[in-house]
Amino acid sequence: MITASLKLVPVGKSLRQLESDINDGAYVGIGQVALTSVKLSQDILQNKVVSGGGKWTGNLANAILTKPGLKQKGIARWDIVVDTKRAPYADWIENGKYAVALPYGNTSGTGKRDYSKSSFKGHHYLQEAATKLTESDFATKIVVAAIDRHLSGNNAVV
Predict the structure, then answer these.
(1) 131-144, pLDDT tens digit by residue?
(2) Residue 133: HSE in the Cβ half-sphere, 13 Å Cα cutoff
(3) What is the pTM of this model?
């Protein structure tokens, strides 16, 4: 007969503390994934504008930010947002003619205008970044590494 044992709880840690460390590590890891997504979105936007001979997008790349979201037991969320005060045209650059409402729409520079007849379909930089991260296991590796750091007691962010 062969007997194997598995140590589930590190010495000196309760199951509750272990669960808390996993949740904290996941929250940190998801925050790191959000920052990675922001950087990827900025790079995609820059590459599309430069390679397509497109127009300058103003402050848009710097207006893409992360925002801490929900943190509860078993739930961790960070949001990737665009500060529309810094880049009010962000919806137009992302969605093109499918944008909902755009500032600076008419000749007086005020009000909204219907752009649905435009041929511009948008750059979809945010959507493309999210797709790239979810299609690879890169995001999972970031979260797992953060959880591992929390479990080992090394909470430094790399």
Answers:
(1) 888 888 888 888 88
(2) 23
(3) 0.70
